[in-house]
Amino acid sequence: MKRRKFLRNSSLTAAGAISAPILASYHDQIEPEIKTNTPVKPITVCTWNFKNATAKSWEVLKDGGSALDAVEQGVRVEEADVKNETVGKGGRPDRDGNVTLDACIMDKDGNCGSVVYLQNIAHPVSVARKVMEETPHIILAGKGAEQFAYEQGFKKEDLFTESTRRQYEEWKKTSKYETTINIENHDTIGMLAIDKNGDIAGACTTSGMAYKVGGRVGDSPIIGAGLFIDNEVGGATATGVGEEVIRTVGSFLIVELMRQGKSPQEACEEGVKRIMKKNEGRKDFQIGFLAINKLGETGGYCVHPGFTYSQFTEKGQKNVPVDSFYQKQ
Ligand code: SD4
Known about the structure:
Elements: H1 3-9, E1 43-47, H2 51-62, H3 67-80, E2 101-106, E3 112-118, H4 124-134, E4 139-141, H5 142-151, H6 162-175, E5 189-194, E6 200-206, E7 227-230, E8 234-240, H7 242-247, H8 250-259, H9 264-278, E9 287-293, E10 298-302, E11 308-313, E12 316-321, E13 323-324
Helix pairs in contact: 2-3, 3-4, 8-9
Bound molecules: N-hydroxy-L-asparagine.
The site of N-hydroxy-L-asparagine has 15 residues, from strand 8.
């Protein structure tokens, strides 16, 4: 499916339009879900077909590395990729022209760290990890987060690229600093991994909605919304319009549903259905959930067709399409 077609099919007419990054490979699919009672480990999965990210994450896991290192290293690939204009360096700015990044990370012991509205630092996930490991806090915001990053040795960087600067200048001409509809294309990376010891970790990182109101923070850095890990049960992460995910504390909900016995697939479906129940008839936003349980079974579900996830196990890498609440038109 072509990116443009996905956008049209999805009726994405409001502020939260989402696009799939590498939909060209949407069709070269393999079986959707692992069904087994023998734990699959190690394993790494991430939202969308971010192949390079799962490849990096797998490299860490196959050498016996921890799930925590695997997810941090994995999502850093997308943070560094300036062609991905929704994450890290090269992410699109807010309506005031500030590139502000959100990220979080969570480990097997329930430790977590998060940065919101972080500017001038290319790897927010690593700052989030430092928040987790070096401070008694969980969330650092804005200037404080930036100052903390410098103290931890992170370098100041211009996060704009020629392309995002040009697009922003274009946007300003017509949008007059208002958040207009159907201008965002964003593909957050949320990653979940299980290491050889069977321990689970996750990370999520984004530049959020393009041309958002200054100061806006989405679900991605909010523990329980954009990401949640419970080492006894599994983990979940989200992509899409963060406001809707926050409202239902989406990732926490999905992990709790798995705790109650649902499979990752069933839990993701229930998560989306809860959101759609509160938004009856609305078609103007996309959400994609991805989940993994302790057995290494995975599942995903989304509002509109087009969401896929990348998976890497010892059997290799694959891009997995997921079912959607609304069907293709
Ligand atoms: C946000 N959930 O800031 C993020 C955006 C996203 O794919 O997921 N884009 O609301």
